[in-house]
Amino acid sequence: MLNKHIVKDYLVITGGTAIVAAAVFFFMLPSHVSVGSATAVAMIVSNFIPVPVSIITFWINVVLLIMGFLLIGRDFGAKTVYASLLLPVMLWILEQIFPNFQSLTQDPMLDVVCYILVVGIGLAILFSCNAASGGLDIVAKIMNKYLHMELGQAMAVSGILVALSSALCYDKKIVVLSVLGTYFGGLVVDKFIFGMNIKRRVCIISKEYDEILDFVLHTLHSGATIYNSIGAFDQNIKKEIVTIVDNQEYRSLMDHVKKVDPSAFITVISVNEISYQPKAKG
Q: Which domain range does residue 243 map to?
């Protein structure tokens, strides 16, 4: 029987891939703006080889997937294999449904803006599941892991060369838009990822300490740390619960605390990155 968490991950990946495919087909391909990606490489190559962009994208992704397996690991590779194979399939389907599709906006600059916003959402969804749509996303993930670069910055660096290569086929305006689109696309992806990864560090001092702690541990299934806090005025020792929760868990926790102890003292800090460095044994 399939694990529910795995099924959920692949459903999310399917949705994210569909968003990426729509951004590529409806905004990037009609405008010829090569915003750094494997599909952009395929679009440029298709000017020299009479093969559909979806097919070229597939083979580019196969090569880079091998790199992903070797340098990142099986978990990333398994999810990205699915997304990488699904993306060209979705592009192929769109090619069949909308042959000779023309730009919706009839303006390359507007197409770039729309592409950046839409693809940013799709890529952020994929990265949240430790996956990518293949191509330069894999390169960005490798750079993120080994060079500790932000994902958006890594995508900009790897994609800028692709954007510049559009000079082989298109005019100066398209090249400039491709470079700008690649750069700002990286910033937008970073922004989306940052927003999705935000968690809250919640500190609670309450007379209903036991009930709130039980809710954190057994309802939210979250960890917690207990501190002895000493009031500066009365010098009384009180228990303080400290836990880190995501947005949905935060809302549930606040509703519960307000219900059991409206007078509880609560402080909240937004956090984006949580890491644990175990001490070396020696």
A: 199-271
